[in-house]
């Protein structure tokens, strides 16, 4: 994670350096600098400052924050080229502008759905890619290019609305969580944009791409809330010195450099060059400080656990369990294959070797799935759970048990709750298969009032009274430990007319349940 943070910061430094060099070349070539360029350059400076501020505090390499930073950088270069009248650069700006509908639609959809599966994802992506490619190919024809560009924006907006309607529940969940932040961002961005448009309403050249500024500013408050949550969830030893002084220093430096430029009667573009150079210098200094701080923190042994001995014992138990698996399953099969290799010329021996290797392959895959559940992004969450239950049933071929999953088709659980629920279903369903002697197992899953409700019911023998050592068994102890850490609860009660019912409640706590990849 630390290495990713430094790499992202280094890329931002490179971007700032190239942009500053580009402005210097423009100044050196004495290109005509018109008054209408002040607005785009000011927005570029604000965009770059925002990207720098976000990246400097993105210690946990949050995917959404990185994505937003890249969008800001892309928009900066797009506006930088579009403002020039030199055919080469204006043409390059138009080509970048043709990619904007695709870039922005992908960004906002990933913001809403957290890059998970949603209805209409593939058709919309293929349609956007096709239109973008056609627009780029039609660049030599100005009329066709502008026509396809307009169609591209229209299709992007329309498909975005259709996708939101097709995934109504998840969209409503998102707007319940982020509606206030989006509204505040819209007001903060829209009011200045409206005032600016009114002032320059008779000068259309000053109003180009004004709508673009509003679009990229929409997630502003959400981004800063995510940054706040990220800082609260990151230990002091896991991050470099806090950059709370960056904003006042940058503002003070910008004011001083602007005043100095005005006092010395420097060209306006020279003032922007000074400001971008100062921003690049801040990034460079912070990179050096961050590199040193992160290197020192790597050498410090610190623990985040309130009871280190308990967690150490747990870690040792996991290591021992994995070691036993390697010895009893993997190593034994490998030795068997080694001993049979000398007789591999016999058909029956070759068949035995292949079956042993296939069994070993299956065993390793099962162990990998147990350690880190792989939820397929090409399938919905319900389909992933159905596949899990089918796999569990296949491991007990002699038990004729009917398994049923009751959950909404559009069920949506954000990280890390989707994986937690995956493990819970696996453990509880396995227990029901092993010990219940049931003919039917039913798994019920729903989300109500930001709380995950999971029940695993069977019609087996059950208990008249629950054993006192029930939760000391390895499987249930693991479930209980997970739920305790996540703030949930597990209750096991008799099921009517027979069997048991294991009920799990797992709260997704308020606004923090929508973490925007904070833990990724």
From TrEMBL:
The keyword Membrane applies. This is Sensor histidine kinase LiaS. It comes from Eubacterium limosum. Its EC number is 2.7.13.3. Keywords: Kinase, Membrane, Transferase, Transmembrane, Transmembrane helix, Two-component regulatory system. One of its GO terms (biological process) is phosphorelay signal transduction system. InterPro entries: HATPase_C_sf, HATPase_dom, Sensor_HK_TwoCompSys. Gene3D superfamilies: Histidine kinase-like ATPase, C-terminal domain. The chain crosses the membrane at residues 9-31, 68-86, 92-113, 125-145, 151-167, 179-199, 205-223, 244-263, 269-291. The lineage of its organism: Bacteria, Bacillati, Bacillota, Clostridia, Eubacteriales. Residues 421-509 form the Histidine kinase/HSP90-like ATPase domain. Pfam families: HATPase_c (PF02518). One of its GO terms (molecular function) is protein histidine kinase activity.
